[in-house]
Amino acid sequence: MNNLEIIANYNDLCGECPVWDGLQQQLFWTDCVGQRFYRYDWRTHRHEIVQQGFEINGFVLNEPGGFIVTNNSGIWYWQTTGELHLIAEHIDGKKCQMNDCTSDPAGRLISGSWFYDPNNDFPRGDLIQVDTDGTTRVLDAGFKLANGLGFSPDGRTLYFADSAERRIYAYDYDVATGTPKNR
Q1: Contact status, residue 14 vs residue 100, Cβ threshold 8 Å
Q2: Which of 98, 135, 102, 93 is nearest to 115 (CA)?
Q3: Are 104 and 151 spatial neighbours (Cβ–Cβ below 8 Å)?
Q4: Are 136 and 88 within 8 A, CB to CB?
Q5: Burial class (CB within 10 angstroms; exposed 0-12, middle 13-18, buried 19+) of 182
Q6: Which phi and psi angles does 108 have, rounded to 5°?
Q7: How far apart are the first and last CA of the chain?
Q8: Which of 19, 59, 81, 130 has the fewest C-beta atoms lying within 10 Å of its C-beta?
Q9: How far apart are CA 75 and CA 135, in angstroms?
């Protein structure tokens, strides 16, 4: 068994959402509470802060370049050399207060909204989708704290965790239509 090695230590407050870019051989991750976004280059073994002062709760690589980012203010497109552009602030009349996200095999973003407050009543969040043309829709509803989204290797099962409920859901997923069913 190999020994574990620390590749970067920034004393993150809430480090999460590691995303590997196989083409560039780079690892990205975020400290959503500390509002920092990082890159580690596997070839050079160098790490750096790419962005500071902007909350990034979740993100996916965008094939033409940059990232699609989720945070408590919405869903954003971000070219790392430029400004962030808001894609969605509301979906079906509800605020896009988004947490974790993933992309399906066809390039659609899937993310979960959250309004969890253990000390007060709160609205339930939704599992939402942003298609490659920017259209949005709600896929499922009634969640406390969206987290841990991902797909099976064949792309036919969508996994989704509700951290506050301590549940992991699995959906049959139709990649052609972007539709989950049979939670």
Answers
A1: no
A2: 98
A3: yes
A4: yes
A5: exposed
A6: -80, 140
A7: 37
A8: 81
A9: 12
Non-local CB neighbours of 20 within 8 Å, separated by 6+ positions: 26, 27, 28
Q: How far apart are CA 138 and CA 26, in angstroms?
A: 32
Q: What are the residue ranges spanned by the domains of the chain?
A: 1-54, 57-181
CATH 3.30.70.240 fits 57-181, yes or no: no
Q: Are 52 and 35 in contact (CB under 8 A)?
A: yes
Token couple for 49: 């802060």
pLDDT of the chain, 183 residues: tens digit per residue: 678 889 999 999 999 999 999 999 999 999 999 999 999 999 999 999 999 999 999 999 998 889 999 999 999 999 877 788 999 999 988 999 999 999 999 999 999 999 888 888 888 999 999 999 989 999 999 999 989 999 999 999 999 999 999 999 999 999 999 999 999
Go through the chain and tell me how many residues it has: 183
Whole-number Å distance between alpha carbons of 21 and 28 = 8
Neighbours of 94 (CB within 10 A): 16
